[in-house]
Amino acid sequence: MESVSGKAFDYTLMKRILKYITPYKVMFYSTAFLSILLASISVVRPILIQKAVNNNIANKDSLGLYEITIWLIVALIIETLLQYVFTYYGNLIGQNIIKDIRNEVFKRVLSFKLKYYDQTPIGRLVTRTVSDIETIAEMFSDGILVILGDLLKIFAAIICMFYINWDLALITLLPIPLLMIGTSIFKRVIKNAFQDVRNQVSLLNTFVQEHVTGMSIVQIFNREKIESELFSDINKKHRDAHIKTVWAYSVFFPLVEILSALSVALLVWYGFKEISLEIASPGEIFSFTFFIHMLYRPIRQLADRFNSLQMGIVSSERVFKVLDTNYNIANEGTQTIENLNGDITFKNVWFAYNQEDWVLKDISFTIKKGQSLALVGATGAGKSSMINLLGRYYEINKGNIYIDNININDIELNHLRKSMAVVLQDVFLFSDTILNNITLYSDEISEERVIEAAKKIGAHDFISNLLGGYQYNVRERGALLSVGQRQLISFIRAYVHNPRILILDEATSSIDSESEALIKHATEILTQNTTSIIVAHRLSTIQNADKILVIDKGKVVEEGTHQELLKLNGHYKKLYNYQFEEVV
Predict the structure, then answer these.
(1) Is residue 528 part of a domain?
(2) d(Cα 445, Cα 496) in Å, to the nearest integer?
(3) Residue 477 has what pLDDT?
(4) Which is nearest to 312 in space by CA: 58, 473, 141?
(5) Dihedral, CA atoms, 251, 254, 259, 265, nearest 10 degrees?
(6) Which residues are paired to 371 by β-bridges?
(7) Residue 164 contacts residue 284 (beta carbons within 8 Å)
(8) At residue 553, does pLDDT exceed 70?
(9) Same domain as 232, residue 191
(10) 446-490: per-residue pLDDT in tens?
(11) Is the pLDDT of residue 522 over 80?
């Protein structure tokens, strides 16, 4: 993915991320205030130590030293408690924000046209919705607020150093400009490195998701060794991307240590001269040693903060790219049809998946309420594309489709799809119970209604024989059920949703003869009192259809009933002869 870098973009991106803080601004401001308290209390210990050395140790005042020690312990306890609250609420803000962002991203993903999924690897979307968004949380739990706290501590330490001894402060801060230059370079290098890391993570997730899903193909074609080598190559690139970040840290951390040691050396050298001239006290030298630690420790930790911040920025770019994707289904329709009849009209419909590579060419036909229409033709003729257009899963290029004489673009999208049910050849079942796979978690459909539907469809007996019955978990994609059983569940799913328009997309093409008899019975039950469109390769399943359209290369070449088409002695007759006549 192309990235956009530069301060202007980062600033704009950060403003966009910070908008998600608005619902939690009280918590955010409270946590920011805690960072100010932590910065303030962090300078108390060096100042107390300075007093202990100058006033108590030098004068052998043991009672005063005990008193200072108690104050040091109190300060340490307070700082620990504040740090606990600061860390807790910093993480709480981050988790709340990514909850909101993840909800927004998933809602956005649900609204995309199916064409988007034809072009986008699923593994990439999983990365955007899960790990990329999780990284954004670290911007708050280990990024923005912590960086703010570290910067305040540095600022407080510098103010105290100048207040105690300004010329000693100037000497010890001489290496700081070098450190600032090094930090600036490190920031740019680490951002590019982590951007590469996120790219490689996305590629890795995509590869693993596709190959785990398609494991049967990998093993059937004996591709284990080849795919393992391909994975090894992707994994190597992922490792190399991480090594770039390791290299950046391995240079930056020693630089911080060297400059820290240099500050201490300058403090000892110049401080000894000032002590000898009675310009500085031993207590000031001790306190400055702690102040130097307070300066360089946060600066060194800023490297890790930049890690979180840059990873969050890179992930944010990716997540917001999904949110900014203009691939939504146009839902401009406002009409609802309370008592939908189911009259369907295609009028001069043209459609192409890619520009003008037409899949459907000037399709026109009409189905009346309660009629059944069968679509037959060779694979790739455009049958499934026609039903995809009816439900507006893809948009028409030219022409119009009407339901009850209302253009489908004028019908509210949810209402349009709620009025129809689709049974596909490749049935998808979630890793859940049979009941939830049928109801799709709808509170409007009771278990009693599901059982009644299963009995009518003819699937109640096989479901009852499963362990747990309707509470039986079918596992991922329904792997524990046969093809026929999965198909019957999809028929029940369609039945209980009480559609006015039913679409069967090659629902019997992948099942055995015994299951086909059950499916045929289910089809008869399901198509009662509904307008039905049946896409079929097996002509035995559509001989009783009210109308049959023969599709060839995106055009309607024949139209009529089964008997009428046989008399034409054309495309349909050839298909019929191929399937039913014995070869002598």
Answers:
(1) yes
(2) 7
(3) 73
(4) 141
(5) -160
(6) none
(7) yes
(8) yes
(9) yes
(10) 889 899 888 888 888 888 988 888 898 888 777 778 878 888 888
(11) no
d(CA 464, CA 486): 15
Closest CA to 449 of 458, 441, 438: 438
Q: Which residues pair with 401 in a beta bridge?
A: 346
The answer to the question of residue 188 being in a domain is: yes
CA dihedral 512, 516, 519, 524 (to 10 degrees): 170
Determine the Cα–Cα distance for residues 268 and 284; give it in Å rounded to an integer.
Answer: 11
Measured distance CA(431)–CA(477) in Å, rounded: 6
Same domain, 349 and 297: no
Distance of CA 165 to CAs 53, 58, 177, 244, Å? 16, 19, 20, 42
Over 90: is that where the pLDDT of 81 sits?
yes
Domain-located, residue 8: no
Report the SS3 class of residue 489: helix
CA gap 74, 451 in Å, rounded: 68
Residues paired with residue 556 on neighbouring β-strands, in sequence order: 551
CA gap 468, 343 in Å, rounded = 41
Three-state DSSP string of 216-234: HHHHHCCCHHHHHHHHHHH
Question: Within this chain, do residues 303 and 350 fall inside the same structural domain, yes or no?
Answer: no
427, 355: one domain: yes
Looking at residue 530, what is its pLDDT? Answer: 86
Cα 113 from Cα 329, distance rounded (Å): 5
Structurally, the chain folds into a number of domains equal to: 2
Q: Print the domain residue range for 479.
A: 344-580
Tell me the whole-structure pTM to 2 decimals: 0.71
- Helix, strand and coil content of the chain, in percent to the nearest 5, comes to 65, 10, 25
What phi, psi does 433 have (nearest 5°)?
-75, 160
Distance of CA 174 to the CA centre of its chain: 47
Q: Taking all residues of the chain, what is their mean pLDDT, rounded to a whole number?
A: 82
Same domain, 155 and 268: yes
Whether residue 369 lies inside any domain: the answer is: yes
What angle separates helix 176-213 from helix 282-323, to the nearest 10 degrees?
Answer: 40
Q: Which residue has the tokens 């391995």?
A: 250
pLDDT value for 5: 42
Full 3-state SS string of 490-550: HHHHHHHCCCCEEEEECCCCCCCHHHHHHHHHHHHHHCCCCEEEEECCCHHHCCCCCEEEE
Considering only CA atoms, give the Rg of the chain: 35
Q: What is the DSSP string of 119-184?
A: HS-HHHHHHIIIIIHHHHHHHHHTTHHHHHHHHHHHHHHHHHHHHH-HHHHHHHTTTHHHHHHHHH
| CA 545 – CA 374 distance, rounded (Å) | 6
The answer to whether 150 touches 225, Cβ cutoff 8 Å, is: no
Looking up residue 246, the CATH number of its domain turns out to be 1.20.1560.10
Distance, CA of 385 to CA of 10 (rounded, Å): 43
Centre a 10 Å sphere on the Cβ of residue 98 and count the other Cβ atoms it contains: 23
